Fold this sequence. Notes:
The chain is α+β, with helices and mostly antiparallel strands. 72% of the residues lie in helices and 13% in strands.
Amino acid sequence: MSVKVNIYGTEYPVKGEAEAGYIEEVARYVDGKxxxxxxxxxxxxxxxxxxxxxxxxxDELFTLRSEQGDLSGELDRRLGRLxxxxxxxxxxx
Length: 93
């Protein structure tokens, strides 16, 4: 599937296996991040804006992965405690 998207004032044809709506949503997100970065810069170099937007998006990804890992670890600990309690209960009967 090929979809035309507009990112930071430039139209790009994007080919992918994902649904058109999803590709457009991702493009809107990237466009929004680039505009957000551009608003904070005095120099509007497209390359600089793109690199800083990519760094911001990557930071979001790494932060979410870390949080997910923390939650997964906590879930594993709780499941372990629950399993231990269940095992103790089964032994007592």
